């Protein structure tokens, strides 16, 4: 079969399985850079190899073909899982001191209660102003010096026109900390947005609490609080966060099929602690929550009218028996404190984003971060395309 026939069959297959336009990018050879759309870059790779390695070939409904003069078809391929893992390796230099110890404080307790000061450096607190009052309403997670990940419904609840700020390095919202933190030294990968500016920054210290205005980016598939799917959003910081021992980016969990078994993950926030009544907490709270079997969770939610199609694979169920996120925790992190060879690593990995639940303590639903890596990486590392 000649090259033209192969291309034609490939085009027909793509149209039948997902639709969208297929365009020819040019005579791309393996490893050549190519544009996937906008500023997002990929590399030309044989289509089967790309897909088997977790790569994606479609962006904004389009597929770019890199034609080569042989019997194989090369497409513009991007591998968000590998890009996320590459960024995580970069973050590790900031999470560990020169003597090998972790930068962040180790936890005082492993159940629930007040988090230790500096225990969760990636956590962010969202706020807005009503008159002269500051209203704290949701959580988030720093995932790069320029971006915080949160829930889409947090942004919709106050209206997209409302100005939002994020506070990084927060612990007790009643205190005003004037102390400065030393900036952590390290280099940023060139795949990261504005990496050159970050690498040239000569800032030596930063406030313990960094308060930064943001721009909102809601996932295009989010359709409102009644539907509850694709409940994820990015906040682009108007000025980049300065990385200190109190402010660090989380790694992003990159395995979309991991079931977690009986694993317990950490959820944190300043939300309610008693069935959604009373007041939110002033001090950051954290609790270990067990990941629930997905089939059991689907059955538990099968009679609910919302979400309309039940619990999907890009959602995670966790908590129950009194251990749960609650109102005010929305948008906050579900974190894995990974271990290697039985030893806990320093960096913290973001597995899910607090989305919704029943009564506090019933168990919550979290947006699975690994299902949205392509969308996330298109913003935070548009030029990242490791093969």
From TrEMBL:
<keyword id="KW-0325">Glycoprotein</keyword>
<dbReference type="InterPro" id="IPR001254">
    <property type="entry name" value="Trypsin_dom"/>
</dbReference>
<dbReference type="InterPro" id="IPR033116">
    <property type="entry name" value="TRYPSIN_SER"/>
</dbReference>
<keyword id="KW-1015">Disulfide bond</keyword>
<comment type="similarity">
    <text>Belongs to the peptidase S1 family. CLIP subfamily.</text>
</comment>
<dbReference type="GO" id="GO:0006508">
    <property type="term" value="P:proteolysis"/>
</dbReference>
<dbReference type="GO" id="GO:0004252">
    <property type="term" value="F:serine-type endopeptidase activity"/>
</dbReference>
<keyword id="KW-0645">Protease</keyword>
<dbReference type="Pfam" id="PF00089">
    <property type="entry name" value="Trypsin"/>
</dbReference>
<feature type="domain" description="Peptidase S1">
    <location>
        <begin position="109"/>
        <end position="381"/>
    </location>
</feature>
<keyword id="KW-0720">Serine protease</keyword>
<feature type="signal peptide">
    <location>
        <begin position="1"/>
        <end position="21"/>
    </location>
</feature>
<protein>
    <recommendedName>
        <fullName>Peptidase S1 domain-containing protein</fullName>
    </recommendedName>
</protein>
<dbReference type="InterPro" id="IPR009003">
    <property type="entry name" value="Peptidase_S1_PA"/>
</dbReference>
<keyword id="KW-0732">Signal</keyword>
<dbReference type="InterPro" id="IPR043504">
    <property type="entry name" value="Peptidase_S1_PA_chymotrypsin"/>
</dbReference>
<keyword id="KW-0378">Hydrolase</keyword>
<dbReference type="InterPro" id="IPR001314">
    <property type="entry name" value="Peptidase_S1A"/>
</dbReference>
<dbReference type="InterPro" id="IPR018114">
    <property type="entry name" value="TRYPSIN_HIS"/>
</dbReference>
């Amino acid at each position: 079969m000649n090259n033209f026939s192969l291309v034609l069959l490939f085009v027909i297959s793509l149209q039948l399985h997902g639709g969208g336009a297929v365009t020819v990018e040019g005579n791309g050879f393996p490893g050549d850079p190519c544009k996937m759309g906008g500023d997002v870059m990929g590399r030309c790779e044989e289509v089967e190899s790309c897909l088997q390695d977790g790569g994606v070939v479609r962006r904004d409904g389009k597929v770019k073909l890199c034609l080569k003069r042989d019997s194989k078809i090369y497409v513009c391929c991007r591998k968000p899982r590998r890009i996320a893992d590459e960024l995580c390796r970069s973050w590790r230099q900031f999470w560990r001191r020169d003597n090998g110890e972790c930068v962040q404080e180790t936890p005082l307790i492993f159940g629930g209660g007040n988090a230790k000061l500096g225990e969760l450096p990636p956590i962010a607190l969202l706020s807005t102003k009503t008159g002269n009052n500051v209203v704290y309403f949701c959580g988030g997670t720093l995932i790069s010096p320029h971006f915080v990940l949160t829930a889409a419904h947090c942004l919709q609840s106050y209206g997209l026109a409302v100005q939002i700020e994020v506070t990084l390095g927060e612990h007790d919202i009643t205190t005003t900390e004037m102390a400065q933190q030393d900036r952590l030294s390290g280099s940023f990968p060139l795949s990261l947005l504005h990496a050159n500016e970050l690498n040239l920054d000569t800032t030596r210290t930063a406030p313990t609490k960094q308060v930064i205005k943001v721009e909102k980016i809601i996932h295009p598939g989010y359709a409102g609080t009644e539907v509850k799917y694709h409940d994820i959003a990015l906040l682009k910081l108007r000025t980049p966060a300065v990385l200190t021992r109190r402010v660090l980016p989380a790694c992003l969990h990159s395995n979309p099929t991991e079931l977690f078994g009986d694993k317990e993950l950490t959820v944190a926030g300043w939300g309610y602690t008693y069935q959604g009544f009373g007041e939110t907490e002033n001090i950051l709270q954290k609790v270990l929550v067990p990941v629930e079997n997905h089939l059991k969770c689907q059955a538990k939610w099968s009679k609910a009218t919302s979400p309309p199609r039940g619990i999907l694979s890009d959602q995670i169920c966790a908590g129950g028996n009194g251990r749960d996120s609650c109102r005010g925790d929305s948008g906050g992190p579900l974190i894995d404190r990974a271990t290697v060879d039985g030893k806990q690593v320093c960096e913290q990995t973001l597995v899910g984003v607090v989305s919704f639940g029943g009564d506090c303590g019933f168990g919550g639903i979290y947006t699975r971060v690994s299902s949205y890596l392509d969308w996330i990486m298109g913003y935070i590392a548009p030029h990242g395309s490791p093969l």
